[in-house]
Input
Amino acid sequence: MLKGYAGKLLFVNLSTGEIKREDLSEELARNFIGGYGIGAKILYEMMPKGADPLGPESVLGFLTGPASATKALFGGRYTMVHKSPVTGGWNDSNSGGYFGPELKRAGYDGLFIWGIAEKPVYLYINDENVEIRDASHLWGMDTTKVWDALKKETEEPKLRVTAIGKSGENMALLSCPINDGHRAPGRGGGGAVMGSKKLKAIAVRGTREIQVANPKRLAEINRNIREKMKNSPSADSFGTYGTGGGTAASALSGDSPVKNWAGVGITDYGEENAHKVSSQSMDRYKTRKYACSYCPLGCGAVYSVDDGRWPIEETDRPEYETASAFGSTLLCNEEDAIIKCNDICNLYGIDTISTGMTIAWAMECYNKGILSKDELDGIDLTWGNGDAIVELTQKIADGEGCGKVLSNGSAYAAKKWGKGEEYLVTASGIELPMHDPRFAPGLARTYQYDPTPGRHVKGGVGSLQMGGSEPVDKYIYEDTGELDVKLTSTREIVNVASLCIFGRVGMSSTTQNEFIEAITGMEFGPEESFKTGLRIFTMRHAFNLREGFKPSDFTLSNRSVGKPPLESGPLAEVTVDNELLARNFFDSMGWDFETGNPKLGVLKDLGHLEDVIEDLYG
Amino acid sequence: MKVKYKYIGIPIPSLGRETKEVALEANATVNDLLILLERDINGQHKDIFKTANFLVNNSRASLDTPLSKGDMIWIFTVLGGG
Ligand code: SF4
Output
């Protein structure tokens, strides 16, 4: 077996109570690396076509990667995989903290859970000891209290926990688990999947050491990263202010959405507000910073708010996505409201991006007279009204009143209430994150056609256009395919290796390959890496194809691509030619743009996709 | 000619974030402004400017956008992807 892996996968059937361990095959590790690579391969095998994401056949996976629980810097992420109850297709979302490395140290590269428990349960993993335990006493508890309660109950102060709050219990589509009190694989409805299984939490304690193939080389790669981070203003900014240090520049430059994607930052939101909701200003509440496992940057921070309307003893600093979703997107400049909403989302286990965006949709509908005050339970949802935003966030978290409908997201609410569809800003039904394709056009292709739609952490030319290392002409749409594919593959490898994308402040475009070689001992040069990234991307895509999705089923709201364009500001007159970007990408992938099917020769070249070939070509 | 500029983004202490005024040659472009600013920051953070975004009088601009007397130039660096 390759080094750098725990060597086992854990399978838990909550309907029967069966728990089994299987060896991780070297073939699977070599060809799908970890994270959603291995996750997609196994879910493709285990889940029947058409399985209800909230039913017993739905498989929920938690995957680490080779970098996890080693000394590789930035290697602490884990990925949750499942079929999304939001989009009906493939879903992966990742999270930092310490939960992933702990799972690996307990001896498992991945954990797969299916079935439905009879009553609320939690999964307890303490090295070889794995038990399904009663969680009736934890049901209804917020995510932080569950962690505290489980530490006491198991007498394991170092226990790591990922848990759903009330929203996941309600199977709300905005829900997600929260690990380590403040980190979340937030997107795509994973909390609802856990809730449908009556799985309140997974609690892990692991004590093993993970052996790596070449510790000296690993140390050298780490040294290179630290060296590059020295004198790097980006690294300084991330380390001091977190992602929220960029909030003002993003809001004013056109990177962030403003007023549900219909406004202009520099005029509708304004400089003062943009600065007010960025970390530089909100950090007056900062009590300490924190970092994920083996992270030299530490983009997280803890706040203590002792003034204003919503004092909170200890809470998490809002990240950029959150500050923007509850800030410029809602024209809200009330930082205490933003911090409070972030806190509610963490405690109740809901995705801050989709929650902010769902409120933005409701706000526009309210301000345009499409939704009435009565329909919003008397909340005066005028633009920027912090009290109203907090009240509605709490209702969404509780799933009460209008919050019951809105807790399933904006697309669900528009359908349920039969109005406001024209104000949705979604990709295949999931709310878009806080980077605007009119600012970085390549994001439109990524948001619409990545097998996991609507994600800013997936690859493509958009990532370069947001702020790479070289200047690019963003608004040229010809001949983008090759570069788009290359960058997509690169990001696949970063993600499945369990590396954090912010590691780029110290990494080069090949550091992830170097890490994989040093950790596992296998050769993993640029060609192998490129092919592997595309294989993994294709595996996720194949999951969607088997569900019956065609490219035309993947949708992206017109507003996000400038149809019609904004009339003023930095994004004035921009209309993204996403069809051309997509056709370029599909051509370069060797995929048919009508059916979405990869050519047989392409699949054979990528290798290790016999199951996909069988399903597509018999 | 005199133009005003403001830098917002990855903190660069010597640039601050207040509006400043500089004198440029007639027919100068955004790029000429950056060359001037790079001197102020000792070349140390030069790479940051390579991928900056610009507005001139609230409209999108690029490195070769010509400047006129009294223009207001915003220079943004975006962290991206978080
Ligand atoms: S940069 Fe931030 S999110 Fe990434 S590993 Fe470090 S602390 Fe975690």
